[in-house]
């Protein structure tokens, strides 16, 4: 079974690469850094940050999870009107539900803000994660005994 965090990351990357094919999409491994090339700052890119917030035990087989996701979207123009134009498309990717693996999780709130010349779309995925119950041990077989 694939790690639930990896499932979410892969689904987010696939969704954003599908909608914004001209953008570079990053998670942990950023391909470029500031300094060496001034044109790198002017490119279109998307950075996806995931932070597990809650892992609460319900019972032996169930865990309630909350994962905060912040998606930073940068356009080469760095203009608010361009960010306002792409907000509905991002909203449609995330709400009313986000799908990953074999799940569809309702996303009630999606918050947008422009900070440091990038649009941030932030939301929390809250769901109950289950692991399969282990098989019970086999029943004891009949024992033939002789009592004298």
Task: Please describe what this structure looks like.
- By secondary structure, the protein is an alpha+beta fold.
- The protein has a single domain (4-29, 41-130), classed as Phage tail protein-like (STM4215-like), CATH 3.30.2000.10.
- Helices cover 21% and strands 39% of the residues.
- The chain contains two helices and seven strands.
- It has helices at 4-19, 80-94, and strands at residues 24-26, 45-59, 62-74, 97-100, 103-106, 111-115, 118-130.
- A five-stranded mixed β-sheet has the order 1-2-3-7-6, covered by helices on one side. Strands 4-5 form a two-stranded antiparallel sheet.
- It starts with a helix and ends in an 18-residue tail after the last strand.
- The mean pLDDT is 87.
């Amino acid at each position: 079974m694939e790690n639930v965090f990896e499932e979410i990351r892969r689904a987010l990357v696939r969704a954003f690469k599908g909608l914004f094919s001209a953008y570079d999409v990053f998670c942990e491994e950023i391909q470029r850094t500031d300094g060496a090339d001034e044109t790198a700052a002017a490119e279109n890119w998307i950075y996806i940050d995931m932070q597990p917030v809650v892992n609460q035990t319900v019972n032996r087989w169930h865990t309630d999870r909350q994962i905060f996701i912040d998606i930073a979207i940068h356009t080469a123009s760095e203009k608010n009107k361009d960010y306002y134009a792409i907000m509905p498309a991002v909203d449609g990717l995330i709400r009313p539900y986000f799908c990953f693996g074999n799940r569809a999780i309702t996303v009630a709130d999606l918050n947008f803000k422009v900070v440091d010349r990038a649009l941030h779309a932030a939301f929390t995925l809250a769901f109950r994660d289950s692991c399969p119950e282990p098989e019970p041990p086999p029943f004891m077989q009949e024992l033939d005994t002789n009592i004298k």
